[in-house]
User: Fold these one by one.
Assistant:
Number 1:
Amino acid sequence: MFSEDSLVVYPTQGVGKIERIDHKDIGGAVCDFYIVRVRANNITLMVPVHNATSVGLRALVGEPEARRILDDLQADIDRSVFIGQNWNRRFREYSERLKSPDLSVVAEVLRELLLIGRAKELSFGERRLLEQAMNLVCGEISEALDLPAEELKDRLLSLYAFVPLEEEGQPA
């Protein structure tokens, strides 16, 4: 399915490169493993070839999909998001959604956390989730569109930055 030097995405870890395919003898059976080096944190993963897709290993999104997701994130930034549930329930829900192999699901978590951050201060756990979602989304989109990841992060953070009413030209 994948070959050496392929760029792949592993859920919750982000973009990685397949360094090699190893063959290991485990209990008398020979198993093949993708050896994936994650770019963001330089850790190495061993992913069994036979169930790589079932654990979420996938190819990077293509340029059109990356552009669509980025355009969606940059549009409708004034949308409101429901924050009525407590932060603990929201944290669990977002943590589960960040495990999705679908980048658009992770991007929606990022959008919601950025919108919540405009309305109120995020808890420590929410800030950690925001950072994780930002790294996952920007890491993959930057690879797909050949853009610097830090530039993407800065652009999104400035788009969603809180703007007090008096700075918008309206009285507070």
Number 2:
Amino acid sequence: MQTITAVARHVVEIKKSRFIVAAAPVTDEAAAKAFIASESDASATHNCWAYRIGQIYRFNDDGEPSGTAGKPILQAIDGQDLDGVAVVVTRFFGGVLLGSGGLIRAYGGSVAECLRAADKIRLTPQVEKGLRLVFSDHGLIKSRLERIEGATVLSEAFGADGIFLRCLLPSDQADGVIQSLIDLTSGRLVVDSQDGRSGSQ
């Protein structure tokens, strides 16, 4: 599973209609809706869109015949095994009707081209962990976490008796990483009992 790394754009003209594609990486529905709103052009004939965020997906034909715009956009996202992506296709009608098949090809094809050209990054499922450590182990733990691909320190809280780190670890390596950190600190590191979970990042 992958996502795109930045906003990607693509413009194509098909039988005098202009299709303007904008795609962006998004982490939640609020971000997807904000992107769709920011990219939609009120002067255009249609602003059709779709997004996929894990198991959540939505699409909209915005006045085009049912099933000819939003669904092909979503299928283009899914067809490239992408997640955390929102796409808006703004259409300026050029006076020539494309028919249902033509619309499906135009929307799906223009989005597929845009996404193919976009820079991508592989998504790693992650789990959130809370780590309690003594001051003397701080540098050692931070250094080790920085060398683990897919590990991210979310926050650090300094207290009277030590430091609390909240971090994301690759789900498939989390147990091994935690054990290695405990070993590294000769058992001084304590894993917080109230771990939260995070989805793909």
Number 3:
Amino acid sequence: MFLIAVMYLFFAATFPVGKIVLDYTDSIMFLTGIRMLIGGALILAYRKFTGSNKSEPKVERRDWIYIFKNGLFGFYIAFVLEFWALRYIQSIKINLFWSFSPFVAALMGYIFLREKLYLKKWMGLIVGFMGMLIMLLGKEGVAAGKTMFQISLPEVAMLGAVVSATYAWFFVQNLTRRGHSISLISGVSMVLSGVMCLATHYIINPNNLMPITGQGAFWTGVFVLIVISNFIAFPLYSYLLKFYTVTFMSLAGLLCPVFGTIIGWFLLGETITIAMAIGFIAVAAGMSLFYLEETA
């Protein structure tokens, strides 16, 4: 249980650290591209150095398509939308958005895979959606200048990031079932998304080769992000899945916004609003209802 808490502590730390790094660059594409390219390359280099790639089954054409889609939806779209939203929304609220991903996954499974949802799961989904709606009624995000009904565009972008990343997990699940390791899938997907992000940046800003305002702070922040997410949090998640069920790990994911609240307050002076607190309680209740049926 201690390692689970450590893992979600590091996951939670990526949001306020990312918000700090954004102060030293005017290009989300450049930041995301550099982070993913370096992080993915280091993972692949580690696999090569340790020889863990030798036991990997052959990557078929279909596998490459799934890996590309994971890079596109799980890293490129999801992280670009998340970091754009992070400019306008508190890191605490970004953290709360990600706690909603299990519900999105369940809904996608029901729509695309015809997975059955019984009474408690439907009740959990409804309560969870109500919690997310309450969180969306907050006023954060209006700094972007536009709103859609009462929901700000950064919040819409963050919802898009959650949906995109959750969709990508279906490709990851398919690849792992075919015998491919998380390190291979993540490493190649990160490199692909990093290339896509940097290509996008240089197409849009061909004359802005290095959009950094503080070299030391920027590269330190990128290094911290890579270490805590690429080399601690993600590997820990894969390791712990050997001992705990996905159900338990998802439920334990509620620790992430709790840690995020503490870190966001400590590093950025952020505070949690009443709407965010009520919304989180509703999401936690909905998730508990959802998993009561799954473990029955």
